[in-house]
Records
---
Amino acid sequence: MAAALEFDPGLPISLADDFLAFEYGEGMFGPQPEMRRLDAIRPSLRDPQCDGPDPVYGIAMDIGRHIDRPALQDRMLLYGAVVYASGRLGSEPVRSQGHVHAIAPHSGWSPPEIFEIWSGKAIVYAQERAEDNPGRCIAVTAGPGEHVVVPPGWAHCVINADPEKKMSFGAWCDRQYGFDYVGVRAHRGLAWFPILTHSGELEWQPNPHYERSSLQQRSARDYPELGIDGSTSMYPIFLRSPDTVMFVSDPARVSDVWPGFVP
């Protein structure tokens, strides 16, 4: 069985009904998702000994249409699909552990990333640095069809903000992607923990292993400075105008945007 996504990503893809996986339609390529187990993310949780769904989420890196594969490879772009379990990780919502993108050898940059929510309710949390002083800390809430861009070098995680249902999204990534967990793990997580109250509301608690910081909470927005207006899904945008998403694999082409960029 398969379940339709709440937002059409412009690809023949659907959610597997009973597992953290996807079903690919005609003309598509994509792997079976790699499962992220609870034990792998425990070091970054507020309560590392908590119970919760296991696996926590499934991630399928490098999906698309067969006909588009050469263009994706030539541009060093990769499209990924992720589905999160419902439920809670102790007092926290289901989420990833947080990381910084490793430097991509071909560009010399820590690549940015474009998230497109397909179903459920997500929060993309990002902070400027995984150091004692985390810099700006921003939590962006997004629903189906909305986008969030995380700029180069920022530590970040994605959160399933609705514990009653699965959440899924697509993401444009650099083909030479890599994850750096060192700073996040050294601080036992990111600078702010999302906490679900007994009534289901989401609150934020600071991680005491960082210096004091403030948290900005925002809704998803368009990104005119990057040519993203949110009017359509990101995969068809790539097909129509590949340069629109080329800042993912070539961040230097918009280097003037990044210093003051707000996710």
---
Amino acid sequence: MKLDIHTHILPREWPDLAARYGRSTGRGAWVQLEHLGPGCGRMLQGGKPFRDITANSWDPATRLAECDAAGVGVQVLSTVPVMFSYWAEPAHTHDLAKLLNDHLAGVVAADPKRFVGLGTVPLQDTELAIRELTRCVRELGFPGVQIGTHVEGRNLDDPSLFPFWQECEQLDACVFVHPWDMLGGERLAKYWMPWLVGMPTETTIAIASLMFGGVLERLPRLRVAFAHGGGSFPGTFGRLAHGFEARPDLCAVANPKHPREYLGRFWCDALTHDAGALRLLIELIGVERVALGTDYPFPLGEDRPGELIGSLGLDAATTDRLLAQNGLDWLGLPRSRFTR
């Protein structure tokens, strides 16, 4: 069994968001999808090209055909992070989240043995985020949600976000953290560096914030997974640990526990693109905390799902953990749900 915890999907159509919500007062811009021809589309942000996509971004039948060809039994679906829209008026982002989540619920309901949904929430407003999180879990049947690595400059340990994390634990909802709105500005403008350098850094900041900020300490039953093999975290962990030991006056101000105590407390997908990097990740956080995730259907994903895991030469039981069981454990779902 292959269960892919990291895939993205969009509706084939959605309303003109600028017309629906009016001129934005935030610093971002709404996203639209323009269909250029059969199976071809272009995402536009603020009227400017953002990304060209194909039918596998919106068409479940195309996705299933490609899953079958790659031997993927189950995809965990989440929106494309640019749709988070945390910069916008909270009520507008909440409305968009409901639109995206209702679409996602329909895709899952049509084939529940092949698809699992992770909702999106208006995280810039904690009360609304909790409201939509609750709807996602209790009404739409999602095991959890996907969120970004920060909320308009607030890291994930910001006190204003703690009630959201509490509700995730209370609802037994898993959380997938995906980088978005990358730091770096003009210095990362060339060479696709927002995606190549900014994304891994965003994820490292998110993990460090949850550890140093005490969120993982205060909520021991929280199930959080991070995209892209944890970003730069595996290669940075030694420095984080040494910094904590050398300058506790700067690092231990919110949580006295050593960062090493949180290794094994969160999951990462296996999308490292390098066998040595994947071995390091497994050694660092544990073989039970790494799960197949491909970033389907985008070009920085893994073209042949599970090939990198297979290249490690692990025994069958361990390989199955990485390909399926660890993802099921993070989702909190039994394997029997997907048997036919």
